[in-house]
Design brief:
two-stranded antiparallel ribbon; mainly alpha
């Protein structure tokens, strides 16, 4: 009979998921982190940011949207409900990581980190509504979603590798170049949020919604400059990896990043020269998630932590005791 009253321990005493199950649960967190970004963008692009004019309820007198609020209320409320789905997926990943044998505490910690980022971002989302879609709060809301995606990718990657001490696959200067690439990609995303905050898609049809007081064309040009920087660093890293005869894994990850950047660049130009149509902007937001995932995978591919740990088989002494105990 279990002596611990910890609910996670009680579950672990009765269920030990496979390593594959943990990996799939971690991947589901990545997928949900992307979905929450895209659906959040859909709220803004459909002018539904104030579809529910208050928080945490939808109106002062109703938890859910009323018929008079129309489609905008439904869209905003649906996005709020997706937060519960996200919590459920993250919760499953935490439980699976905790119940898996052998216990890998780093996976559990990464799962809990996601949970607290989700909780914090839910509060920021509420503040966004209460401040009438303040563009700086909206940008913070998006960047916290990027932080959630970062932790989700880290958990997914850790679920695929072992627990040995990290073995670097390339020399330090190459690793530093990859870090610069990831840093530049992060700046690219941050500047992209400023472009959004200064652009025409304020999230609500009301003319009173504040915008970041910057020239949209100038900040967009800065965003494009960072795109060229990231592409240049990606190409430089590819040539460097080839020159030092790096393993095939890191080279493939860099090629994947380059391909995603090219597709995202095409979408960005279509968006710019067509006055930012809503559908294209939404696709561009999805692409930004893929770019960030690809950049993180490049960095993480430059180390190796061995194969997955294996549950030790019962010892001969233990096997001999079992029948006697039963008898």
């Amino acid at each position: 009979m279990p002596t611990s009253m910890n609910p996670l321990q009680l579950i672990a005493d009765r269920w030990q998921p496979s390593a594959r199950f943990v990996q799939r649960a971690a991947l589901a967190c990545v997928v949900m982190a992307v979905i929450i970004v895209v659906t959040g963008g859909a709220v803004r692009l459909t002018q539904s940011g104030l579809g529910c004019p208050t928080w945490p309820t939808c109106t002062e007198h109703s938890l859910t949207p009323t018929p008079a609020m129309g489609i905008n209320g439904i869209i905003e409320f649906t996005n709020r409900m997706l937060t519960y789905v996200l919590c459920a997926v993250v919760g499953l990943a935490i439980i699976a990581a905790r119940a898996h044998l052998p216990l890998r505490r780093d996976l559990t910690r990464l799962g809990w980190a996601q949970f607290w980022v989700v909780m914090g971002n839910a509060v920021i989302g509420g503040i966004t509504v209460l401040t009438g879609l303040n563009p700086y709060i909206v940008s913070t809301h998006f960047l916290l979603s990027t932080a959630l995606l970062t932790v989700a990718v880290l958990m997914w990657h850790r679920s695929l590798e072992g627990d040995a001490a990290p073995r670097e696959l390339v020399a330090r200067p190459v690793r530093e170049l990859s870090r610069v690439l990831v840093g530049a990609t992060l700046l690219l995303i941050v500047v992209g949020t400023v472009v959004t905050g200064a652009g025409k898609h304020a999230g609500d049809a009301s003319k009173g919604v504040r915008r970041i007081p910057l020239d949209w064309h100038e900040i967009t040009q800065l965003h494009v400059d960072f795109v060229y920087i990231v592409i240049g660093l990606t190409v430089a890293l590819w040539f460097t990896l080839r020159a030092v005869q790096a393993p095939g894994g890191p080279v493939r990850r860099v090629v994947e990043l380059f391909a995603v950047l090219m597709l995202q660049g095409v979408i960005g130009y279509v968006q710019y020269f067509n006055d930012s149509p809503e559908v294209v902007v939404g696709i561009h937001m999805f692409g930004s998630c893929l770019v960030w995932i690809a950049a993180l995978r490049v960095l993480l591919s430059l180390r190796d932590r061995g194969p997955l740990p294996v549950v030790p088989a019962p010892s001969a002494e233990h096997e001999a005791v079992e029948p006697a105990a039963v008898a």
